[in-house]
Amino acid sequence: MILKALELDFFRNYSHMEAVFDPRVNLIYGDNAQGKTNLLEAVAYLSSARSHRARYDREMIMLGVDSAFLKGELAGRGREFTLEARLFRGKGRQLYSNGVRLKTAGELAGVFTTVLFCPEDLSLVRAGGAERRKFLDLAICQLRPRYAQALAEYHRLYDHKTRILRDWPENPSLLQTLDDFNLRMAQTGALLIHYRAHFIRRLEEHAPAIHGEFSGGREQLRLGYETVSTVDDPLAPPREILARLLEHQESHRQAELDSRQCLSGPHKDDLLVEIGERSARTYASQGQVRTAALSLKLAQREIFQEETGEWPVLLLDDVLSELDSKRQSFVLNHIQGGQIFITCCEEEKLEGLEQGASFHIQGGTLV
Fold it and tell me: For residue 140, is it within any domain?
């Protein structure tokens, strides 16, 4: 998978930008707050219509402007194609593939895959469950269109149910719709659990080996999946998971009404990470946490390659400066093959990587 060219209009601090990239390594350098991360965010957005740091699309539109435009020229699987995204304030985005408007973001799945690694990911293991769920969601959405659609639907249903539980004492008639929302949430939630469990199993096939090599064989990484307590087999078909979710909902019905909160469903799922049979989040050192986070990201890259037959575009956002020399060397030696974007503050030669093109970013402009 290769991003040949990128065009941006009014995206973040880019009023207009056009660039043609090298199929190997692209070094993006410049001072802080000049737009390096924004450029990588745009590339990642074209692969999933999701941002790793913005909840709403309007946050990515330049201040004082009503819309933004992103366009990527790509090559992969023996063909060339174009992806476009138009973002608006006050109305929904528009996504296009080869000029044809897409009905949902899920249709992007498998078209253009990226793996983004940023400094925040170094604390992925230490952070709360929400960050690990985001990691899973961003990854699976790029591979499985059905998952992307189910995730969007689940978030919509969750927001509606939350409002029902919050407002029902003042408006008891709202409870008439609760059972319908519970059923639809359980149906979509069963799909989320099913796909998450299978992706985590794939991570288990790759991440421990990477971590073991990283640590010189001194540490053993283990992964697990924590979901709704009544789901004893998250790898089961969705129809079996559905029955377990409905059971959990019924047992928590009164507690939800009393607390006015949604207590049942996969919105509290977590990816469990252990090093040496102890919780990495609680007991791991800073170095172990970083090694585990790196292993998860590199495992994600290998899974994408297995699924699509091509390496995903790898986006390293100022992450090398956060690593010691040993970890830098390990990462660079494990990312041979495929197209790579690396941001840093100063132009430099990266030992172990075949040098490609360099781009200097200053004030949202290529100079």
Answer: no
